[in-house]
Each structure stands twice: as C-alpha cells, then as structure tokens.
Amino acid sequence: MTSEVRQHLEPSPIAGEGRVRGGAQRRLRSSILSLSIGAAFAASIAAVADSLRPTDPAALTGGALTVARFDREAYLQPAPGLNRTQMQAFQMGRHHFDKKWASISSLQFEWGLGPTFIAKSCEECHAGGGRGRPPPSAAEQLQSMLVRVSIPGEDAHGGPKPHPSYGDQFQNFGLNGPFPDFAFHTAPVPGEAALYVDWEGTSVALADGEAVPLRRPRLRIENLAYGPLGEGVMTSLRIAQPLVGLGLLEAVPEDTLLAIAKQQRAHGINGRPNYVRDDINDRTALGRFGWKANQPSIRQQIAAASLADMGLTTRMYRQQNCPPVQHLCVIQTPGNDPEVAFTDLDDLELWTRALAVPARRSPDDPQVLRGEQLFEQAKCGVCHVQTLRTAERFPVLPQLANQTFHAYTDLLLHDMGEKLADGRPDFKAGGRDWRTPPLWGIGLSAGVNGSTALLHDGRARNITEAILWHGGEAEPAREAFRNMPRADREALVKFVESI
User: Where are the domains of the chain?
Assistant: First the structure.
C-alpha cells in the first residue's frame, strides 16, 4: 500500500512550463501541484477504505490516516496523502529517529551525546516506534524505561521541583569511555546512578475462582554518583510509550476534551485536563502527551526527551543535564550549539506527527463484537473514549484536519487508585493520577518489537493484568471484568487486541 500511495503522490510534469515566467510560473505550478496532491489524497483514502472493506466504520482507526499494515513496520508508516515535500521530510525524520549519537570525538555517529544519557538513539527506547520493555533480568539496568525524580515543592511554573544533584530524571549512563565512539573529552563522566527493577509477585482472584498472577515493580537505585537522595525524594518509574497516531491526538481541539470531562461527571468519573508549561510559546497550555499528560505538543515532547534521554540540546533547551555538583559533566565540550539542528528537529516533528495508524483487525468477528458490547457495558469506554475528531483547520499538517478517528482515549487525567500511585505530582496531576492511554494498535505491539508491557511502569504483561490493576475511578470497570464469565473476559480482551 505504501508504494502505491507514493506513486500517487509523484506530481506530473507541468505542461508548457517553459513558456510561463516569474510569478505566473510559480502560481501555475502551485495550483496544479495542489490539485494533484488533493486528488492523490482522495485516491489514497479510497484505496485504504477499499483495501479494508470494513463493515464497521471504526475499522478505519485513524480515519484517512489509516493503513493496512500489521507487521514489524506497522507503527512506522507514513500517513496516506503526504505530498512529495512532506514525504521527503518524513524520510529524513525516520533517519533522525534511527540514528545513533556519540560524543564529539566520534568518527562514526552524530556528535552531541551526553555527557549523561539513557539511550544513544530514539529507536533504542521506542523500538519499531513501539513501547519499551522492562529488563529481562534483575541484573540488567533500565534502558527503554526511565526514572523521574523530584523533591517536595514546585518549580517556577508549577511543575515538579528538580533534585539539586540529579535534576528531574536519572541518566544512568555517562561518557566514561567504554567505547571509542562514546568517549569523554576531559575526564570520565559517570552515570548518575545504576537503575534496576525487582519484581514482587501477587495475584487476584476472579469471581469464577480463577487466580491471575500479577507483579509489581520495586525500583532499586545503586551507585549514586553525587551523594544520597535525601529525605522526601519522589521517584517514578516510567516505560516508553508507542508513537503511533500522535499527530491526530495533537489536532483534537481543547474544547472537545473539556466537553468529555463534563460528560464524564454524569457517570461519576472525574476526568481532568493537565495544564502544563508550554516552553515554546511561553504560556500555560493543556497537556496531551506523557504518562501524566505533562507535555503540550509533539515538538516540546521531542525536545525534552532529546535532552533528558540523550543529553542533546535544542534551541528550546540549550543547557546540558548538568546540575552544578556534577563538575565532570559541566566541563565537557558540547557537540554543537545546539546539538540537534533546527531543521532536523523540524523533520523529526513532521515524522512523528505524520505517522499513520494501523487498521482494526477482524472488526466483525462475533467474539470481537461480543467483546465490544462488554467493553461498553463495563463502562470502559467512559474514559477510553472511542471516537474523537480533529479541528477543522490544522495548518502545521493540513491532512490531519477534519478527521474522525478511534484512539480509545480522552487524554484526561484520572485517579487510578493507590496500587498504581507513584506519589509524585506533575503540574495538575496528583500522585494517583494517570492520563488514559490510547488503545489503538495495542494488539500489534508484540509483533512490532516483542513488548507486551502495559501501564506506566510495565508491570502488566498482558491486557488482562492491566485491567486487573485498575483502581480508583476505574474500580467499577475492573470489578465488572473480574466478575465476568471466562468466555466474556476472553471476548473483551480479544476486542481490545483488535483495536
């Protein structure tokens, strides 16, 4: 399908171009190209719909941005209808997503890594554009997971207050010279700490007598390089989230989400938006991305992750991750200023925003249809809202405008109970609050990169476990699931896997 779409998008030569001059030539080229792109976009939508042949319109999970791709590349496809310039930027964005970074002394990779970091590329945490995974053994450090850290109080904008020695996130690797391409410049820079996770087993009994084994993580922090954490320190274990469909989520009007929150109160559900710092526009804005909805836009999410996860500066964040006590970190030579070029950030933003959404699988399977009914009866859909619509205009990527899609999220915060609490506030999000994660593509996760880890800390190994960890506002839905006969539980899980 992707190759067919690309063929549609190649603009044809402009007849008589040599006889047109100056502004008239540019206007003619622009007009014809616009018509070509519009026709191509319409053709690509028709091709997607025809290839899926849904009996249920919800099979077009991403609206016109849906693709029928279900393999390891399912999360990495371009939205149908990108024009040639957009496709070129998309391809460059994919290159930036995959590329490895190194120190300034590197001869092989991009300069700028560190001085402290978690990963050497975006792809290391989001393999295949998908979710992270917990380490396979207690002896291996976290990599596609991270640990937020803060102390009591708020920063100048109402966000978490960074730890004076470790900032707001642990970087567990540093330029300590184990390989030539990741060497230090002046002196070895240690990672801030060694981070491990141990698992504690438990179980929950279902109404029919079946016992489901569960596990909860216990974070283990060793080798603190800059002294003890001190009293009252708050930490939060987080796993990398999939990237699919973020552009559609960004394009939903704020008023839509506020209306959903108002509707939820009629069901006894207190969905709330997080209002966070928008560093790009120097204001407070509605948060959409991250486990606690603490980022307002794709661009800021990319820039913040570049700095926190790889030690890469951008025009937004030009200071390295080096609290003053980390002297060896402070004195390292930066790769460039900034290390992520503005145009590279543009391409990576376009790539992320233009990722397509895999289509529903088997939407008219009888078991899936039964599961969908049970999903609604259990009121799972009050928070995992099936259908959203994007704004009438979305200038940064016009193809995202006026799209009806099915992500199964409200992008709002909900109290998920004490068992899932991290105890760490984040702007308006409390210590028990989490943003409703989208469910689209969840059944493809194992095929994309092998990970089925769910919930903010990866504790759930499958959908059943994830549901059984729900508490707080979601406790009635969990209890409805727990009391279902086995056949109904299996149907509900199969429905979620089909989304």
Answer: 1-43, 101-242+290-343
